[in-house]
Amino acid sequence: MSNPFREDLVSRSRAEACTVVIFGATGDLTHRKLVPALYNLAVDGELPHGVKIIGFARREKSDAVFREGLEELNKEVSRSGHDASLWEEYKESIHYHQSEFTDIDGYQRLAERLDAIDRERGGVGNRLFYIASAPEFFDVILENLKAVGLSEAADGAWARVIVEKPFGTDLATAQHLNKVVNNTFAEKDTYRIDHYLGKETAQNIMVLRFANAIFEPLWNNKHIEQVQITCAEHLGMEGGRGGYYDKAGALRDMVQNHLLQLLSLVAMEPPTDLSADGVRDEKVKVLRSLRQLNSPELIKQNVVRAQYTAGHVDAKQVVGYREEDRVDPESMTEAYVALRMHVDTWRWSGVPFYLRVGKRLPKKATEISIHFKSPPNVLFNATPGANEGGNVLVIRIQPDEGISLRMVSKLPGTSLRMEPVKMDFHYATSFGKGSPEAYERLLLDAMAGDATLFARRDEVEEAWKYIDHIERAWHESEVKPPMAEFVAGSWGPKEADDLLEQDGNSWRRL
Ligand SMILES: NC(=O)C1=CN([C@@H]2O[C@H](COP(=O)(O)OP(=O)(O)OC[C@H]3O[C@@H](n4cnc5c(N)ncnc54)[C@H](OP(=O)(O)O)[C@@H]3O)[C@@H](O)[C@H]2O)C=CC1
Ligand SMILES: O=C1O[C@H](COP(=O)(O)O)[C@@H](O)[C@H](O)[C@H]1O
């Protein structure tokens, strides 16, 4: 496709034209995230000229029907709105390819189609394979791509693969999948997606830390008392999600990937350069330094799991977790988890990292808060308001992306009183526009061959090592830790509050 929208704009990224083949193209991810992301990039003039999309899935569909379905969703979700005349041009670059994932003939036909596109384009045949299927098909798709030679790039071209989450269900399955992927594509051509890394504010963590001289000198256990990472969702198991989620649970679904990635960005040492491996080398060191919770006793002391009971969210009555569609009525899967973690490095020795994530909490909000130690209590200890809490730096990942710094200030007036105030930076007001969707940035990076915001093999495996201890204690130990409960629409179980209270701390109110 020639970029139909902004011929005047040259793409600002180093992304190169390619054909994007999406496996699982009739699914939710393709309709809600991937195709709208490519559309928005095209609207913004960021998509390289000549990008084509081939959707691979099982159902019989014509190109026209496939495009209509995509358009319906694009109208609903596109960040830049939906322009019918722009869509008319954009949709010409989208095609449908019907095949079973297991059918080798389907891949043979795909190879022929890709060759025809390259001939038509008269340029190099770069290919980006996006595996957006359920995880049980990851192996077979990779094996079939290899069998028909599609994992090999033509001279002067590249062939890359993006693999969706979940990347395995434990260390052993992740290692197996890594073997299959690396047997098909070189590690440099493998992009394990973690869409939280594509979120604007997650990317800003490194800039905040390493491009501002005021924070880094304070970014250690001498000045920081605790770090909290919260990822709250108000959604439950809508849209049939219960089938997948009840097998995964909050720990595997969110902590193993998104939350541990955020923690790594907060805790890592400055990389020697901004290359993909420079950054990922430092992140993986953090994961290796996590204090392992390798006994049921440690897990009982440091981890709380919970399910929600019926309650109200957004003023609507909602059912409890075990009553959700496609959830086992006797399920022992957590829809909420809170953890106290430690990063055993010199920088972070003695600083607790508290993480919590859950469904059916009061609102959707993800944030990281860095709680600084209080100053010596000598000057203002008798001043009203002196105990209002210390400095807190809050990185709002979503919504209302931004950063705020809480400090204590003198209240105007003749007497000395102190009150907490906030310096607040909002992306939307400071830069006059909303942030691009995470998938936009990540797709563009994959087209540019930049894997910095994708997880490397060793990162994924280190994260699973940590998670496996907890999963084993929950599901395999003789005396299983209890499953706490909280009312849907509340901020989680009392046990999670107790976890912090033991250290004299409390969760930040969002
Ligand atoms: N949805 C989301 O927001 C997110 C999803 N993900 C991950 O992305 C992946 C896809 O999720 P999602 O889009 O929600 O899944 P869906 O269940 O909505 O889609 C599955 C897709 O796979 C196709 N498919 C299933 N079986 C076969 C087969 N045997 N042969 C060919 N095609 C087949 C389906 O085709 P057909 O309809 O023709 O049967 C459909 O296109 C999962 O790994 C998920 O964990 C990750 C983050 C967010
Ligand atoms: O990966 C996942 O992420 C979503 C939350 O993503 P967000 O970008 O909306 O914060 C979560 O709902 C889902 O369970 C999980 O699989």
From TrEMBL:
Domain named Glucose-6-phosphate dehydrogenase C-terminal: residues: 206-508
Residues at which substrate binds: 195, 199, 233, 253, 359, 364
Name the EC number(s). 1.1.1.49
The biological pathway it contributes to is: Carbohydrate degradation; pentose phosphate pathway; D-ribulose 5-phosphate from D-glucose 6-phosphate (oxidative stage): step 1/3
Q: Which residues form the active site?
A: 258
What are the protein's UniProt keywords?
Answer: Carbohydrate metabolism, Glucose metabolism, NADP, Oxidoreductase
The record lists NADP(+) as bound by 58, 100-101, 165
Task: Quote the protein name from its UniProt record.
Answer: Glucose-6-phosphate 1-dehydrogenase
State the species of origin: Rubritalea tangerina
Which gene is annotated as encoding this protein in its UniProt record? Answer: zwf
